[in-house]
Write a structure and sequence with these properties.
globular; mainly alpha; 290 residues; MarR family transcriptional regulator
C-alpha cells in the first residue's frame, strides 16, 4: 500500500515531518484509516490486499481520466504498458487483477469503439469510493500536523478536485524515484497476499498501545485463513521485524519496522502536502490558507 512518489523526499525532509508537533497522532490516524478500509470488509480487502493490486486499481482510475491522442481511455493494453514500464507488475498479473475487479463490479466494459480491437473499460462507483476514502484519510491525517488542511477533505465532494488529485498522484507515481527503502525482509512479506496489511495492523496496535492481535484475530478481521496469517507472521519473525510474544501465537512489532512505518507516514504526508495545493490550483481555487 506504499505510495509511489514518496521516495522523492530526502531524509532531512522526512525527519522534519516526523519532528512536527502531533506527528505521532497524525501517523496513527493514517495507519488506522488504511487498516479500517480493509478490516471487516473481506470482499474489498481481497481486491486491494497487496501493493500490486492497489496500483493496478489506481492506474485504472488514472487512465480513465487521461485519454490518449486518439481519445482512448482505459484499455487493457494501456494498463499493461503502464504497469510494465513502471515495474508495477507483469502484464499477465495486471490482466488477472482486472478480471477480479470486473467480477467484483469495480470495473465494467463500455461500448465498443470503431476499432473492434479496442475494448475500453470504465471504473465503477465502488472503485471510485475506495480511493476517495483513501485520499480523505491521507489528507485528514496531514491536517493533524498542518491545520490549514483541515477543511480540504470536503473538497473531495467536487469531481473537479478528485480528477485533479488523481491526475497529479498518477504523475507522481510515475515520475518519483520509487518506493522508500524497505527494511530487510519486508519485500518478501509484501509478496504475500495481505502481507503488508498484517504488518500495518501490528504497527497500529503498537501505536495505540494495544495488545498485539493474534493470528486468529487478524484472520477474522481480514477474512483470510489463519494458516496464511501464520505464514506472514513467520516471515516477519525471520526478518527480525516482529517478535513472538512468549510462547503465544501473538507478535509484537520491532524497532526497524516501527521506524519504516513512521518514515512511510511522513513521506505520504509530504506527498499530499505538495500535491493537494496543486490540485486546488488546477481547478482554479485557492490553496490552503491562501
Amino acid at each position: 500500500m506504499i505510495e509511489r512518489g514518496t521516495g522523492a523526499f530526502s531524509p532531512e525532509m522526512i525527519a522534519e515531518m516526523r519532528s512536527r508537533p502531533r506527528f505521532r497522532d497524525a501517523s496513527t490516524r493514517l495507519l488506522n484509516g488504511i487498516v479500517s478500509l480493509h478490516r471487516s470488509r473481506p470482499s474489498q480487502h481481497r481486491l486491494f490486499s497487496d501493493r500490486g493490486r492497489v496500483f493496478v486499481a489506481f492506474f485504472c482510475l488514472y487512465l480513465h481520466g487521461q485519454p490518449n491522442q486518439n481519445g482512448i481511455r482505459l484499455t487493457m493494453s494501456r494498463l499493461e504498458a503502464i504497469c510494465q514500464s513502471h515495474d508495477i507488475c507483469s502484464a499477465a498479473r495486471a490482466r488477472s487483477i482486472v478480471q477480479l475487479m470486473l467480477r467484483a463490479g469495480h470495473l465494467t466494459m463500455t461500448a465498443r469503439t470503431d476499432d473492434a480491437r479496442t475494448k475500453p473499460m470504465e471504473p465503477t462507483q465502488p472503485l471510485r469510493d475506495y480511493f476517495r476514502e483513501r485520499w480523505a484519510n491521507n489528507i485528514a491525517s496531514l491536517a493533524v500536523v498542518h491545520p490549514q488542511f483541515t477543511d480540504i477533505p470536503a473538497a473531495l465532494d467536487r469531481a473537479t478536485f478528485r480528477d485533479a488529485l488523481c491526475a497529479l498522484l498518477g504523475q507522481s507515481h510515475q515520475t518519483g524515484p520509487g518506493l522508500p527503502g524497505e527494511p530487510d525482509g519486508l519485500y518478501e512479506i509484501t509478496e504475500f497476499d495481505s502481507g503488508l496489511m498484517i504488518m500495518l495492523r501490528l504497527a497500529l496496535a503498537n501505536r495505540l498501545d494495544e495488545p498485539p492481535p493474534s493470528a486468529n484475530g487478524m484472520s477474522r478481521e481480514f477474512g483470510i485463513s489463519r494458516a496464511h496469517v501464520a505464514n506472514i507472521l513467520q516471515a516477519g519473525e525471520r526478518a527480525a521485524l516482529i517478535a513472538r510474544v512468549g510462547a503465544t501465537s501473538t507478535f509484537a512489532i520491532r524497532e526497524p519496522l516501527c521506524e519504516r512505518m513512521s518514515d512511510y507516514c511522513a513521506a505520504t504526508m509530504l506527498l499530499y502536502e505538495r500535491i493537494v495545493p496543486e490540485a486546488l490550483a488546477m481547478e482554479g481555487r485557492h490553496t490552503p490558507g491562501a
